[in-house]
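Hi Y.,

Following your request, here is the sequence exactly as I used it, all 174 residues.
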Amino acid sequence: MFAAMNAGVVLIRAFNNVVNDFLDQGLAIKWSERLNEVLTARWLADKNYYRLQMRRHAPDNIDQRIQQDAQEFIASTIEFVRGMVNSVVTSLEFAVVLRGLAGILTVFGFDIPHGIVWFVYIFVILATFIAMWIGNPLIRYNYENEKLNGDYRYSPHPRARPRRKRGVLQRRKT
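Below is the corresponding structure, written out as C-alpha cells. Let me know if you'd prefer a different format.
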C-alpha cells in the first residue's frame, strides 16, 4: 500500500514538472508573441501613436514600454499559475502521505478517521482567506507602482531637460 502511495506521489510530481516546463517554455513564448502583436496593433490602429505624440506629456519609447509591460504581465501570470499548481500538487502529495500515517483524531468526543488531514485542509483554507484579505490592497499598490516605474523609466528626468536645452543652445552659438 505504501509503495503504491509513493508511486502516486512520484507520478504527481513528474506531471507537475512537465506542466512547469510547458509554462516556462512553450506557453510563455507563444503568449508573448501574440500579446505583443495585439498590443502593437492597438497602438498603431486609428493613428493612436500620432495622438500620443501630440499630447503635452507623451510617453517616450512607447513600443519598448509595451513590450516590457507585456513581458512583466506574462511572467507574473505564469509565476502565479505555477505557484498555484505547485501548491495544489504539494498539498495532494502531503495529504497522501499524511493519510497513510494518520490515525483517528478525537475532537469533543467525536472520532474522526484521518482527522489530521481534514484539520490541515481547514487550516490551509483559513490561511488562504487571511492571505487574500491582507494581500488584496497590494494589487492596487502594485498597479500604481508599475505605472510610476514606467513613467519614470521612459521620461527624461525633469532636471535633465533644461540642461539639455542649454547644451543644445550653447552648441548652436559656437
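Residues 2-160 form one domain.

Thanks again,
Q.
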